[in-house]
Amino acid sequence: MIKKIVISSENVKFLDKINELSGETVTLCDQCGVCSGSCPMISEMDITPSQMMRKVQLGQMDVMDSKAMWLCASCFACTVRCPRGLDLSKVAEALRQVKLRQAIDHIDIKKIPENEINRLPQIALISSFRKFTG
Ligand code: SF4
Ligand code: SF4
């Protein structure tokens, strides 16, 4: 049975917001899947990069519940190969920004054991806080 998708003004608003924040036109994505085939992080992701784009095209805000946007390493492997010239890393960044602006951090320093903090490279911690906290 074909699932019916209803697109509301809220969905359109969400798409517009991601387009605005990312500077990309997500509707240009033709779902070719080249990004998913190029992504070095895909084995860890719960949805593929092309699925992330599709969800944004449809304004499906549950895309922000996915691990994929946090796992995008901004490596640009997809960006250089996208036939539509889209920069998916900017889309992932825009999604993270929307979530972080709701004051929902992705990591909590208080939950990281002290021995872990001492063991981890400080530069990795700093870049993590930049990426995962608002
Ligand atoms: S490579 Fe580009 S056009 Fe193809 S699915 Fe990914 S974002 Fe869309
Ligand atoms: S920029 Fe992000 S989505 Fe694109 S290939 Fe790299 S990790 Fe994957």
Short summary of the structure?
By secondary structure, this protein is an all-alpha fold. 50% of the residues lie in helices and 0% in strands.
Characterise the protein shown here.
The chain is mostly helical and about 130 residues long. It folds into 2 domains: about 10-100, no CATH class; about 105-134, no CATH class. It has 8 helices and no strands. It has helices at about 10-20, 35-40, 50-55, 70, 75-80, 90-100, 115-120, 120-130. Helix 1 (about 10-20) crosses helix 6. The protein is globular and about 50 Å long. The model has no long low-confidence stretch (mean pLDDT about 95). Bound molecules: iron/sulfur cluster (SF4) (2 copies). One iron/sulfur cluster binds next to helix 2 and helix 3.
Bound heterogens, unique = iron/sulfur cluster
**What does the oligomeric state look like here?**
single chain
Percent of residues in helical segments?
40-55%
Envelope shape: globular
Domain module count: 2
Largest sheet: none
**What's the Cα radius of gyration?**
16 Å
The parts where pLDDT drops under 50 for at least 5 residues are none
**What's the overall average pLDDT, rounded?**
93
